[in-house]
Every structure is written in C-alpha cells, then in structure tokens.
Amino acid sequence: MSITYKCLLPLLSIVIFAFACSSDHTHAEDGHDHGEPHTEQQEIAEESHSDTEVELTNEQIKTIGLTIGKMEELKITGFIKANGVLDLPPDEIATVTAPANGFVQSTKGEYLIGSYVKQGTVLARLEHPDYLQLQQDYLEVVAQLEFSRQEVSRQQELSGANAGVLKSLQEATSVLKRQEAQAKGLAAKLRYLGIDPEQVSSGKVFSTIGITAPISGYITNLNINQGRYVQPSEMLYEIVNNQHVHLELDVFESNISQVQEGMPISFTLPSLSSEVFAGEVRLVGRSFNMENKTVRVHGHIDGKNPNFIRGAYVEAKIWNDAATVKALPEGAVISEGGLNYIFIQEEETPDGKHFRRVSVKVGEKDNGFVAVEPLEVLPDGTRFVTDQAYYLAAQMMKGELEHEH
C-alpha cells in the first residue's frame, strides 16, 4: 500500500545511519582528510536538497535497494462500495391474520419461531358463534331459493297460458335473483373463512375455522395463544420464504451514474463470516433518498443461498468493467496529508542520480499495483522509482531538517 509520513520518522534515523556509513566508507577509500575542502566529485556524491528534489550516490541507491523502472499499463478492475441488507420480494413474506373475529380454540404447539411450515398447513383454530350464524343464514337462503325457483317456474307456465299476470312473474323473478345474490355472497363469506358451502348444504356444520399458512417458509414471528380473542387487524404469525433472498444496496449519489444493470456484485455478511458471495445488479433505482444521499440498487444472488437471514447487514462491491490504466507498484507512492506523490529520475551522473517529487492522483488498487495519474505532463520515457520510495522521502526530510539548522 502507499506509505504515509507516519512511517517515515522511524525510518529516518535508519536511513541517516545507512547513508552516513556509506559516506564514511567512501571517504576512507578515497583517502580524504576531514580537514581538506570537498572536491567537485565529492559534492556530486552528496545529497542536494530542495522542497521537491533529492540526489543520491550509486552506493546509497544500492544500500537501500532503490529500484527504478517504467510505468506499467495494467487492467485494474474498479469497484463501487455499497452497503445494504438482505431482503425478500413482497410475495415471499406473509403476515398471517385471522379471517374474522374469534377466540383461539387451539394452536399447534410444534409451530414455533424458526419452524418450517408448508403452504396450507393449519396453524391454529378459532371459534365464535358468528361462524354458526353465517352457516345458518346460508342454509336459510338456500332453502328459500328452492321455493323461489318453483314459484318462477309456475308463473312462467301461467304466463304462457295467458292465465297469469305478467307482474306476478316479474316479482317472482326479482325475488329469485335477490336470493341468488344473497346465497352467492354468503357462500363467498364461508369460503373466506375456509368453510366449504357445498358441505354446509349437505348438512355439515363447522364450529371452528382454521388459520392456515399462505406460503411455505419459516415462522419468524408469533403472537397467539389459546383462549385469546383475536381480530383480523392483528398479526398472529409471520412467515418468510428465504429461497429468494436478494440484495438491497444503497449507492451514493456521486457513484450511481457508474452503476448499470448486469454488473457483477461481490458481498460479505460481516456479522456471519468473511466468506465472499456473488451477485448481479438487476435494477437501479430512480428515486433519491434525501436522508442518506443514496439511490437504491436491487441485486440478485448467484447460486444456492446458505441460510441467509432477511435484514442481515451486507458490505458489497459493485464491479465496473476492467479498464487499462497507468499503474505503479504500491511501494512507489507516498501519501502525506491527503496528497499523493511519486519520484521520477531526472539526471544521472557516473556517481549518482537526481530525483524529483511529482504529485499524482491515485485510483484503484489491484495485486500490489495502484493506478496513478501524474498532475503534470511527463515526457515519454520518464523513469520512475518503483519501490522503496519512502527512503527517498525520508532522505528529503533529512535534508529539510538539516537546512532548518
């Protein structure tokens, strides 16, 4: 990763020591006396400093293992960070309520939170006098229907023989239609309660009704007990089907223009494990959340899901198409106070090399490389420090400190 000045201060003493030893060794070999003035060759071998420049001898370069090379063109895959939750489609979440007011007559004790139930499973039974009254009303209307049909048939015969009055036929027909409507309405109410009108018509009477699971899934909430009076507005059970868990991600406004349908997603669930799962962007929201300055992105998860839990927090990366960028090894980049820079080689002599600091804008990182964009135009063939750049930064700091004294 790029190096910050927090790392440079401890290194500075090491660099000064290494450079001092290197400089003393050079003086000893040349047989110079400390009292003699420096020659031009010695001055080249020593460091010259400015705010952005530093000069090293070949021996110093060798001592610190400084490497110099060219900037690479690499495909570094960029990504957009996003946070969100696991969620389910509306049709995979069921709130179970009572179809009518009633008293809980019995519950299935084995169906607790975490239990798996199949669609249609009876979870509990309710009882109330109104259920019996509804069946009685239905039977009475059905009985009246039989008489009304006979009356309409009789009036039609009289009318055909010109022996009846048309008004009587119309009245009988009206009564029949009204009773048919009543019977249909009562039959629909019975079906809504889970009671079969045909069985009621055959003489069977039901004193209780069942509360059934509308979908297959796991019970995630339970609010029922025997003897309790319940109403249709109350939630008694909640059932979720986790087979279709998806991603609901929040992407910041500044990044949403880079997100497109079909882009791959990688994500983790920090509360569960460090395992990385894969998905894909399916929908990009068209509304802006003013509270957190984000846009909602809907993603599908690849393959079979482990036991994901609805509402679990996820950290995700939405991957852009790979792009070819100019890049350097991460050891070539220095970070200081929110700014980034690198070193380029400008001059070379038989005894050393001259380096200059250049400000850069950094991009994505991948496999030890970081995308780099110099903030000034550099000529073709420019040579870059590709590693140990922090030693150059430390040496530059050393020079600045010496100048202050």
Describe, in plain words, how this protein is organized in 3D.
There is one protein chain. By secondary structure, the chain is α+β, with helices and mostly antiparallel strands. It folds into three domains: 3-76 and 324-404, conserved putative lor/sdh protein from methanococcus maripaludis s2 fold (Beta Barrel); 80-89 and 242-321, Elongation Factor Tu (Ef-tu), domain 3 (Beta Barrel); 98-234, no CATH class. Helices cover 29% and strands 36% of the residues. The protein is built from seven helices and 24 strands. It has helices at 8-30, 40-45, 58-64, 129-160, 166-192, 197-201, 389-404; strands at residues 3-4, 53-57, 67-69, 72-76, 79-87, 93-96, 102-107, 116-117, 122-127, 208-212, 217-222, 229-230, 237-240, 246-252, 264-268, 277-289, 294-301, 313-319, 323-329, 334-336, 339-349, 352-366, 369-374, 383-387. Strands 1, 2, 3, 4, 19, 20, 21, 22, 23 and 24 form a ten-stranded mixed sheet that branches. β15 and β16 form a beta hairpin. α1 packs across α7 (389-404) and α4 (129-160) runs antiparallel to α5. The longest helix is centred in the middle third of the chain and has 32 residues, at 129-160. It is elongated, with a radius of gyration of 42 Å. The model is unreliable at 5-49 (pLDDT under 50).
